[in-house]
Amino acid sequence: MKSISIFGLATSLFTVAKGHTLFTSLYVNDVKQGQGDGTCVRQNIDLAHATSPVRDLSSDDMACGISGTVPVNYTCPAPTGAKLTFEYRLNPNKASGGFIDESHKGPVAVYAKRLLSPNADAAGPGWFKLWGEGYDMEADKWATEKIINTNGLLSIQIPMALPAGNYLFRPEVVAMHNVTPEVEPQFYIGCAQVFVESSVTGDFNIPSEKSVSIPGYLQKDDSSVTYNIYKDEEYADPKKAYPMMGPEPFVPVAVLTAASGKVTRQTVGGIPDSCLLVNGNWCGVEVPPYTNNLTGCWNAVKDCWSQADACWAQQPASGGRNCEDFTGPPAYELKSNDFPAPGPIPAAVNVDDVPQDHTSSEASLTTRVVVTSSVLVTVTVIPTPSSSSSTSPESIPDFTLRPTNTAQPSQSIPDFTLRPTSTAQASHTPKPKPHCGGRKRRHTRQRE
Ligand SMILES: [Cu+2]
After folding, report:
1. Is the overall model pTM greater than 0.85, yes or no?
2. For the Auxiliary Activity family 9 catalytic domain, which residue ranges apply (predicted)?
3. Domains (ranges, CATH) in the chain?
């Protein structure tokens, strides 16, 4: 920890929270999900200690981090075979300022768990490891050091044999620098809520030796947990190989049920179309319509204020930048105040492990509209009738996505252009709506 600041308590609290690291943001195929960071990501809701690690191996916090047993509002869809990228930050609500504390050397892994319902328990059985790496003796690097080199970004490919459904993807960054026989490693974990869209359905059998319970998969006296990075690695001669934590990775290869060609898509838990602006797992919607009377106008303003309050109350550790921007029902145009990726999105670490052959061009068929922060696009969703009457609750008719203007990837300012939802106002210049910007200043101070 750094020395106590002369600027007082608020600054020193910030300094304390600055150490360590936090998984803040999810990308699917190189596109940051949602807006304002933290969409579909379970983060510690204690903003002052959001980067604190989990140390108690028997705690339910081991599953998805502190406060990670509670689902967040949104689950992001991802086509099977997609690349998921997890962003780690030293300062959760800032784009710069480091990724993982440099002293924090240790192994890194990614686990996953299929959820039979979006709100199913994170803690408990059913977890499997997709990939893991400890100490690379040849390169003399810990996996954490490699993540720092890729700007805090860690990518994994979703195996194509995973059946469609809700999953938790759990990156695990472990710091071993403080380990003694009495002190456990520090675990930096969080979970991404993802709906894998695939034509593969059916049961999902993980070999028993590769299926673990979290907590429970690690014991205090495991050699991977008690390993001393100074005695065993840095100054040892010969160096002692690091025994990787947890089970062997499970790479599903066989398609358990023949692919039907019909892609099962997410029907619940996504970001609603009615969202004007998203911040993490909060979304702001249009205020109630009113005619030209003061009562209606006032009610609309109050509604807007209460939405902004909810935004601040629900802001994740990764910040409330878009709460500042939700200053009033906009003239159908809001911009998300998003940070760009801190660097190039790295290739998936497990790309050599995951079979790449697949029976259909599924990935291109399952592209879905999410409120992305890096592409300016307006889309129309046209449902087409389903040819068969499926009884599966998760199966829905295919959607055709038709861009209504030319999608132009925006390099700089993330944008989100909205189309009017009311047909009453067909004018090309939408009327300004009441503004509740008076609260902006008050809330802006909240983060400092
Ligand atoms: Cu730490």
Report:
1. no
2. 20-233
3. 9-234 (2.70.50.70)
